Amino acid sequence: MPLSSVLFIRVLTPNSRHSSVRKHLQLTEESKDEAADVNRKSQKREAYQTAIMNAYKRRLTCSMVMVALSSWRATKWKRLG
Q1: What are the boundaries of each domain within the chain?
Q2: Cα–Cα 20 to 30 A to 24, which of 1, 35, 40, 78?
C-alpha cells in the first residue's frame, strides 16, 4: 500500500478513524491485486486458446494441402499412365 495515501488520509480524518481507514485502504489494494490476478489469468487463458486454435488451423490447412497434393498426383499419374 502506498505510504502517501495513508499519510493523506491520516491528515484528513480524526484519530479515532485511523485504523478503519487504513484497513479499508488495505482491502482496496488487496481487491485491486486480486482483480489484476484474475485479469492476468484470463489473458493467459485467451492466449492459450488462441495458440491451440492457430495450431489446429495450421494442421488442418497442412492436411488439406496434402490431400489436394496427393489427389493432384493421382490424377497426374492417371493422365500419364
Answers
A1: 17-80
A2: 40
- Could you tell me how far CA 12 lies from the centroid of its own chain? 39
Provide the 8-state DSSP code for 17: G
Does the pTM of the predicted model rise above 0.70?
no
C-alpha cell at 55: 495450431
Q: How far apart are the first and last CA of the chain?
A: 80
Closest CA relative to residue 27, chosen from 5, 43, 10: 5
N residues, the chain: 81
> In this structure, what DSSP letter does residue 1 have?
-
Here the cell at position 43 is: 489473458
CA-to-CA dists, residue 81 to 70, 71, 78, angstroms? 16, 15, 5
Q: What is the pLDDT of residues 40-77, one digit of tens each?
A: 888 888 888 888 888 888 888 888 888 888 888 787 77
